Amino acid sequence: MAIDPIALRNALGQYATGVAIVTTLDGAGRPTGLTVNSFASVSLDPPLVLWSLAANSSCQAAFEACSHFAVNVLTADQVALANRFATNGIDKFAGVAWMPGLGGAPLLAGAGAVFECRSEARHAGGDHTIFIGRVERFAHDEAHPLIFHAGRYCARAELPPIAVKH
Ligand SMILES: Cc1cc2nc3c(=O)[nH]c(=O)nc-3n(C[C@H](O)[C@H](O)[C@H](O)COP(=O)(O)O)c2cc1C
Question: Fewest Cβ atoms closer than 10 Å to its Cβ: which of 19, 84, 100, 123?
């Protein structure tokens, strides 16, 4: 049965995610990065995470070659930053406050969490490349996360939190 990619994307959009900006340095030492919602935890021991990068991204060469990348998890007040880092062909870092982390990967000011990763493995995944990172350092605070659902950002959780029963 043929799968309609637009219908598939709409169905996948029911799976709400956070939003992150993954950063690294390119071969010339310039900061590079993009907005993603494909970030996910993989393993606690060893500490591994993953995200996937579209084959047509201008960031592809930089992430293929880098030793480290940083995953900057965005907060509810960082919608403008999310949109900026989802725009091709602009200087994404212009006016953005950051400092170099492990391997020089940019750590963005105000992120709700940051995972500094050694780039451990790459896997082909259709029109994307899956990157596995080994977390070497991390930090977080208790800020409201930016949430992505059904193709839109949700800047506030509207319902009170409900405890998970294990
Ligand atoms: C909420 C959101 C999530 C995204 N998730 C991903 C992703 O997981 N992987 C990806 O390659 N692109 C993702 N994108 C698209 C990239 O951010 C965008 O195509 C990219 O920044 C374009 O610039 P580039 O060619 O310089 O990479 C996402 C965009 C948005 C707005």
Answer: 123
- Atom 18 of ligand 1, nearest CA residue: 86
Q: What is the pLDDT of residues 71-120, one digit of tens each?
A: 999 999 999 999 999 999 999 999 999 999 999 999 999 999 999 999 99
What pTM was estimated for this model as a whole? 0.96
Region for 87 from its dihedrals, namely left if φ exceeds 0, alpha if ψ lies in -120 to 50, beta otherwise: beta
Superfamily covering domain 5-154: Electron Transport, Fmn-binding Protein; Chain A (2.30.110.10)
CA of 21 to the centre of ligand 1 (A): 9
Ligand 1 mean position, distance from CA 163 (Å): 32
Q: Return the domain boundaries, the chain.
A: 5-154
Which token pair is 122? Answer: 């790459």
Q: How far is the CA of 165 from the centre of ligand 1 (A)?
A: 34
